[in-house]
Design goal:
The structure holds two protein chains of two kinds. By secondary structure, chain A is an all-alpha fold. Chain A has four helices and no strands. The radius of gyration of chain A is 23 Å and the shape is rod-shaped. The chains are: A mainly alpha, B alpha+beta.
């Protein structure tokens, strides 16, 4: 009985605790947003990047074009970054 | 300023007797970009043939080849220019090439020949030594192992001991990996001896064709190698002396002969008939008169120089940048992407202004800016090559902008300067003692978005100009309208957003009275703009519709200006907090011997951390801001793929003009 009572007391939360936990959730959300989009960008750029390096090795003139193609997926992580920053601040 | 250097297409026609003076003058002026003649390419040139090289071409190129062989052997690099006095010395180079150079070449070739002969000799001796090596411990003369009729001699390595029950004589010695054995048996027992050796995994070693003890022979050859090496050193020293003494002469001769060969081979790019030749090419319009006069004087007016005109000709003109001095280094960044076409707007000047600003917004820190500025100025002395110095100049401009924005953001290695941020605050609350309120992320974001909106609109406006200039007929109108359509869709979306949301630093149209269906004037205007814009885009190319979302993604892409910048600030502040807050400060309260060491460690953490962040900031700031130009800005108007203007001739570095 005594154990149950302390457990109930422990789960009762004050407003400050709720606020703090919300802050933590926001930070987690921001982290997940940036992290997952980062992985997405990485996966997408992996294949493009290796092909781009190969193409540049064969013909240096295409460097500008392949750089452009390589960085196109970066938009994904930028979206994640925007969401993350807006969540945090 | 925003267009490349103006070019005029020039046609030169003359009799073949004037060919050499014309070529000489063109080469001297270094202005004429030769348009190569291709047989059967154009109808008006029917019957013309590619010219044959001038008579001296063969001999000159042979001479050049020999000279290059020597300069290669010497590993002479033409990495610097000769001084004025050295240039004057080279005034009578023609005679030198004819008289002195052959003698010098002969001497060098002789030395090189001797060197390679001696090199082979050393190799031969070394081979002999390695053949003798297994017999090093054999205590009898080597000739005793050869020339028997009734005996067989085996020599080689075995992995296991062997025991023979036939009459034999055997010598063994141990080496690191296996046992060396010499076995002599009479011919009638040869079979069983071979079998026994085979069982012991015998590896035969040939008996060297030498007389005397192997040890003595090795000593003899070693002394021979030493002697030859001494001789080699002598030769190398002689060659080195020659190189030092005549380096400039070699380079100057190389330049002269290269020029001669290029001139002699120029007719290969001309169109010729039996008695005449025609060459077409490009001359910068500003220099045209000078060029024309030069040709006139050189040939006594016996040459016909004609200017060709027409817009279809312009499409194939070579491109030479025409920028103010400030923008010149940025041409390198343009060449990395692609050189502009002749008819296209050359955005070098715009990039040279916008790129440093973006760099500054991302890496706005007085400290980092100062480090990069010092680096870019200091390295200029050691950097050779045109591209390297231009890159450093771009970095210099960018770091100055970084310092300016550092003052505006009030940042110095992540600390705040004595004033509060003039622009927006980027100070994060790291370590719990940040001054003022945290970063104004929303304001910064809106600033970045505004930059994006403006640059993309500018890009589309330039697109309109480019299409109006380059295209012809109905496509021209459609393409111009499509670019206008993209601007209209962008601003239509903005109007609709402003009608529904209140945002800082953006116009607020939420207060306008609704007109139809709860939509106010701003929304209706936005919808009309979007619809019209989409129609304009479809009229040019229906497939472009799939690109519509890029309006949003490209504008939002400018958020990286803030995102990458904030991450750089965060790293700087974390480094400060770890180095000073966690390591140095607690030790300062009660100083001890160990404390001093810990403080030094803290200082080290501080330096390494900021060094790392400087490099990261330079890469991040540079790459992200150039990427915004290449991807978000250039795709709106820029095609590139222009031909480089390479005038016939060369800049003389070792000779006087």
């Amino acid at each position: 009985m005594a154990d149950a009572a302390t457990a109930v007391a422990a789960t009762e939360m004050t407003v400050e605790m709720v606020k703090a936990s919300q802050l933590g959730m926001k930070a987690l959300g921001a982290g997940i947003a940036v992290g997952l989009t980062g992985i997405g960008t990485g996966l997408a750029e992996m294949a493009i990047g290796s092909a781009a390096v190969g193409a540049t090795a064969e013909n240096k003139d295409v460097f500008g074009l392949v750089l452009l193609l390589t960085v196109i997926p970066e938009t994904i992580v930028i979206f994640g970054l925007v969401v993350g920053l807006l969540l945090l601040f | 300023m925003l267009t490349p250097e103006g070019m005029t297409r020039v046609l030169i026609a003359a009799t073949k007797s004037q060919m050499e003076p014309v070529i000489r003058e063109m080469y001297r002026q270094h202005l004429f970009h030769i348009e190569e003649f291709v047989e059967k390419d154009r109808i008006e040139y029917e019957g013309y043939r590619i010219g044959t090289p001038l008579p001296q071409a063969n001999e000159t190129s042979r001479e050049l080849l020999r000279l290059r062989g020597i300069t290669n052997a010497f590993m002479i690099r033409d990495d610097q220019e000769a001084s004025q006095s050295e240039r004057q010395k080279n005034a009578h180079l023609k005679e030198v090439v004819e008289k002195e150079l052959p003698i010098l070449e002969q001497e060098v070739e002789e030395l090189l020949g001797r060197r390679s002969r001696l090199d082979t000799q050393v190799k031969e001796y070394e081979q002999k030594i390695s053949g003798l090596q297994p017999f090093r411990d054999v205590p009898f003369d080597l000739e005793l192992l050869r020339g028997y009729k009734t005996f067989s001699v085996f020599s080689g390595y075995i992995l296991r001991d062997i025991s023979l029950d036939i009459p034999h004589e055997m010598f063994t010695s141990d080496t690191k990996k296996a046992k060396f054995v010499i076995l002599i048996v009479s011919n009638q027992h040869r079979g069983s001896a071979e079998q026994a050796l085979l069982d012991a995994q015998f590896q035969a070693v040939p008996i060297p064709e030498e007389n005397g003890l192997a040890k003595d022979r090795i000593g003899f050859y070693e002394s021979q190698i030493l002697a030859v090496k001494g001789e080699l050193e002598d030769i190398n020293r002689r060659l080195e002396d020659l190189k030092k003494e005549h380096k400039n002469l070699f380079l100057a001769c190389n330049e002269l002969l290269t020029a001669d060969v290029e001139m002699a081979e120029a007719p290969l790019r001309f169109a010729t008939t039996g008695e005449t030749f025609i060459v077409e090419g490009w001359v910068p319009t500003a220099e045209l008169e000078k060029f024309r006069q030069g040709i006139h004087y050189a040939t006594g007016g016996k040459v016909y120089v004609y200017e060709l005109e027409g817009s279809e000709i312009e499409d194939i003109a070579p491109t030479e940048y025409h920028n103010v001095g400030f923008a010149k280094p940025t041409e390198m960044l343009m060449d990395v992407y692609s050189r502009p076409r002749y008819t296209e707007i050359d955005p070098t000047l715009l990039v040279s202004i916008i790129f440093p600003i973006f760099f500054g917004i991302i890496l706005g820190d007085v400290g980092y800016g100062a480090i990069l500025l010092a680096l870019s100025i200091g390295l200029q002395r050691f950097m050779k090559g045109d591209d390297g110095t231009r890159l450093l100049k771009v970095l210099r401009n960018a770091s100055i902008s970084s310092i300016v924005f550092g003052i505006l953001f009030s940042e110095f290695f992540g600390f705040s300067l004595p004033w509060s941020p003039i622009l927006f605050s980027r100070h994060l609350n790291i370590g719990g003692h940040a001054a003022g309120h945290g970063p104004e992320v929303t304001s910064l974001m809106i600033m970045a978005i505004w930059i994006g909106i403006l640059q993309i609109t500018l890009g589309r406006v330039l697109g309109i100009i480019n299409h109006a200039r380059q295209d012809h007929g109905s496509h021209r109108v459609k393409a111009v309208m499509a670019n206008l359509g993209w601007i209209m869709v962008l601003w239509g979306i903005l109007l609709m957003l402003w009608a529904s949301f209140t945002m800082p630093f953006m116009p607020d149209f939420t207060g306008l009275p609704p007109i139809v269906m709860g939509l106010n004037l701003s929304s209706i205007l936005g919808i009309v703009l979007i619809l019209l814009g989409v129609i304009f885009i479809i009229r040019d190319s229906a497939l472009e519709i799939v690109e519509l979302p890029t309006i949003l993604s490209h504008v939002l892409s400018y958020a990286r200006l803030v995102g990458v910048g904030l991450s750089s600030v965060a790293i700087a502040m974390v480094v400060n907090f770890i180095a000073i807050g966690l390591i140095i400060e607690p030790q300062l309260e009660s100083l001890s011997a160990v404390g001093v060491i810990i403080i030094i460690v803290g200082a080290l953490v501080f330096v390494i951390g900021h060094l790392l962040n400087t490099i990261l900031g330079m890469l991040g700031g540079g790459l992200q801001s150039i990427r915004l130009q290449y991807v978000e800005f250039f795709t709106k108007f820029y095609k590139g793929g222009g031909k480089k203007y390479t005038p016939f001739g060369m800049k003389k570095r070792f000779m006087e003009d």
